[in-house]
Please model this.
Amino acid sequence: MEQPTPSVLVQLVFLIPAVASILAWLLGRLHRAFAELIGLLGAAGALAVSVVIVGSALRGEILTGWGRELRVDSLSALLVLLISAVGVPAALFSIRYMRHRRLHDAQGRDITDARLPAFYGLFLLFMATMLWGCVTNNIIMLYVAVEATTIASGLLVAFYWDRRSLEAGYKYLMLLTVGITFALFACVLLYASAAPYLPGVNAMLISELRGVAGLIPRSVAIFVVAFLVVGFGTKAGIAPFHPWLPDAHAEAPSPVSALLSGVMIKMAAYALARTVTIFFPAYPALTVFIVVLGSFTMLLGGVMALAQDDLKRLLAYSTVSQMGYVIVGLGFGTYLGVYGGLFHLVTHAAAKALLFLSVGAVIYATSARSISELGGLSRRMPITAVCFFIGAFSIAGMPPFGGFMSKLTIFMAGAGVGMWAAVGVGVFTSLLTLVVVFRAGQAVFWGEPKSAAAALESVREVPASLWAAMVLLAGVCLLLGVYPQLAYPLLNRASLSIAGVLAGH
Amino acid sequence: MPYNARLIETLSMVMIITSVAAVESHNLKRAAAAYCLQALLICGLILAFAVGNPALYIWALVAFITKAVLTPWFMMRYIGKTGEEEVRPIIGFGPSVVIVSVMLVSFYKLTHTYVHVLAPTPESAAGVFRTNLAIALTVFVLGLYAMLSRRDAIKTVIGLCLLENAVHLSLVSLAPNMRETALIGIATEVVVTVYLLLYVISGIREKIGTTDTFELAELHW
Model:
């Protein structure tokens, strides 16, 4: 039995970026370079702490903080590592990228440098709230953290402050706040109905709630699960609660899109996994419901992506589709299903962040992001092209990239429980995704430029800090595909922590 | 139980009337004032329940600061920037009132009869708690109706505030023993979100010239 060990690392992992956020905002007003540097350092600090936390998790330790308010097991460690590991390349990418598009006020003055400290401050705050959400053991604070990520990222989505970004920001804040209110209702109901059975113990602690999930009155449990799915599912991009996603991910600055698609929705899926899976032992039919929802999401996202001309919206719909895979994997309710779902969480985070950064590079070089306008870029931007295709093939589930391994695991899990329909939908969607991303990549990088913007002589490969971030993520995609065993130790423990819940102990 | 049922019922009814006023009023400043009144009544309701649970005094204070002071202040400030007259919704005043009244009565009846389905513990289904849950659910639906049927972006924010108020009010009967830190966290977040929304809407007003949500149609599938 793993013994909980109090550790300051648990608080540090989100306090470092939180403090850095304030510093970036304050010191950035002296010179934007301070904001950029602190942005990178804050993310790197979180990564360093995450790596140490993962080390403890692999030794079987459970770290706690503030009594039992914060609790880091292998699953939390995995998410924490994921968030900071994607955050660092995104922060690196932001440095040159955010300087490139100049912002002007109503009088036409260039105010970019004045707004960058706010960008980095919010960026780090965004990371801090996500990290906090993954280490909290308190179900009400989980709601607070998820809502806090919306607050932190709301102004990031609207950052460019033009018509489209403002519209996206408005819808983002509105839809997510309403959605998360359902989750609040569910969390409170769960707490209140569990309270009589957990006397003397804080009934808000998720680690305690799993034991009493079966004792809650049936009708209340149904409401709780429904509202949790609506609430956290909205945030995780599950259909039919996904409409906020394409707008927000497309209009946000590319490094922010990488964080939104790459890690924020993963954190929401984590919240869903933590809270809904405690009901699986008492309500086995729930697994079917979750798998159906996931399959619907998979298919809808894939089909909608097919119809997109805007590269970023295409990627956003693809994100919806891939989250379907994660939900289906978790929904199968077996160790292999959970392993596949979590593995896909990791491979998709790396690949989707890579894709958004690659598209960001394209935007940086050509100021265009429509497939119908671009073409022939591989000649001028070879590194970006290679990175894009690596991400694309990983998303589509092609070997030797990570996505192939994670999807295969999910299909095997589906076969294991006999849900062949779900496997069929998954395979079909994979093929669909392959068509979508290949067609996009081919139209953008091969062939001839289809507009003046893409044919400009000035179009050339992006600066080193941009492609370095992309190459890093591309390396991860390749590594996970060729050596999936690398992720096994941590994924195994993380899956066991959920699978233990699923088995009813 | 020392609850003053009459007081609670009276406060609840007036609170619903102010909620309807907040939704229907075409002058945004008056709508915000109606909302402020509604928030005050909610504080009153929480205080009425506090006799049975002293922790609720803190909740009432938090609710007062966030809902009755900060939120209306932000609203008034931004309404000053974006204009007082609401962009008229498609559903006019008359039909609106009818729809809202029908909804209110049916939801009140529904929740009062079926409260045991939702109540997490037997105590929550008793007497005044049942009234509270029923009221909270009706205001929730009212807020949702406002968000879906109003064309003016500021009105949708008022709808959101009503929705949140409803959920927070329901906490009184659902989770009377919840810790204050949790309540403070929940209430603060809504205020910050409302502020951000209003800030974004004022930006929209600057860039587009109106707060009409029908104009926010650049992004479609």
